[in-house]
Amino acid sequence: MPAIAAMVQGPWGGKNDGPDGDGQKGGDGGPRNPWTQPGKSGGGQKGPSAIEELLRRGRESFGQGGGGGGGFGGLPSRGSGKALWPLAIGLVVILWVVLTSFHRVGPQERGVVTMLGKYSRTLSPGISLTLPAPFEAVTTVDVEEIRTIDIGSVSAESENLVLTGDQNIIDLAYSVRWNIRNPELYLFQLSDPDASVREVAESAMRAVLASVSLDDALGAGRTGIEQQVEQKMQEILDGYRSGIRIQGVAIKQADPPTAVNDAFKGVSAAQQTAQTYLNEARAAAQQVTAKAQGEAAAFDKVYEQYKLAPDVTRRRMYYETMEGVLSNVDKTIVEGGNVTPYLPLPEIKRRAQASPAQGAAATEGQ
User: Fold this and answer.
1) Residue 170: strand pairing partners
2) Phi-psi bin for 243: left (phi > 0), alpha (psi -120 to 50), beta?
């Protein structure tokens, strides 16, 4: 019977191990109860178990115990014995609502509001109120900033070769200026707006240059090319619903490729020389034409006077003509009747003009 009683004992001892049946070690040396505090004798008053001690400490840590008087996370308690952690949590909530609900949008900006990741509305400049994060988020976009994308390089390190309509190749460098017209489309319609603008600019420029000649591309038609590229880019981006407005296209460089640049410069210089000669010829022709027109107008005036007095005008015209003809020739006038000595006045005049010139030449020779 004692052997059977020992076999039915549980792991914490039998029923009759102690006088109070509390599982403490009895007279037969059985194991003690693990839920009781160590060092407590079975014969005295029963102490709190380990689980009760853990619960008591938890209540004290949250400010519910009366012995420690501490608050949540070590916060001090108020004078009445209540903890300050509810006030701290309330302050954090207020700051969270204020900082994530009030938004300032600048004069050049627009605020795009998303509710749980989906577009909701667009905020105008000023102070606006939204739901706190993470329910609503605001992304500010500067819609007045002019952005610039440079394509090609003016240096000789890299070339941006483009084919013209007459099967020639030029090295082109240009820039594109743009800004944001619709912020919500700009944010959500294109994954990379800057790269899209660059690709559209290259496509539009190559399409326009494929329809013009080399001379137009090198300088004569640059303004028209820029306008056509700007218009074509705007049409493509509007088709993409990108929310982007093209402000302008400027061609910085349009030169032949480096390998044939010297030959092109020689051809250009020859063309400029030929154009200079043509301009000079046109100027001379205009001068001759203007002189002839002036002489014709003067003759018309003389003819009007001739019609009023034909004899007087005829005699005057005769005298003026003879004066102009005989002023540069040697003349001898011989009058009939009396014989007068011949005096060669023109020869004397020429000798008088030649004498000072010969004296000056002799002086220089000496």
Assistant:
1) 162
2) left
> What DSSP line would sit under 159-218, residue for residue?
--EEE-TTS-EEEEEEEEEEEES-HHHHHHT-S-HHHHHHHHHHHHHHHHHTTS-HHIII
Residue 174 · residue 252 · CB < 8 Å: yes
Q: Could you tell me if residue 248 is left (phi over 0), alpha (psi between -120 and 50 degrees) or otherwise beta?
A: left
Please state the domain extents for the chain.
104-142, 147-255, 263-314
Q: 28-32, 235-239, 317-321: which has the minimum mean pLDDT?
A: 28-32
> What is the rounded CA–CA span in Å between residue 196 and residue 194?
5
331: confidence class by pLDDT, cuts 50, 70, 90: low
CA pair distance 129, 101, nearest whole angstrom: 5
CA distance 312 to 317: 9
Handedness of CA 258, 260, 266, 267 (dihedral sign): negative
Task: Answer whether 42's CB lies under 8 Å from 24's CB.
Answer: yes
Domain 147-255 CATH assignment equals 3.10.450.50: no
Most confident of 35-44, 253-262, 323-332: 253-262
Amino acid at 187: L
Please tell me whether residue 221 adopts helix, strand or coil conformation. coil
What is this structure's pTM?
0.52
For the segment 201-212, what is each residue's pLDDT rounded down to a tens digit? 999 999 999 999
**How far is residue 309's CA from residue 289's CA, in Å, rounded to a whole number?**
30
Listed in sequence order, the residues at least 6 apart from 32 whose beta carbon sits closer than 8 Å to its beta carbon are: 12, 13, 23, 24, 25
- Give the pair of three-digit tokens for residue 153: 């390089």
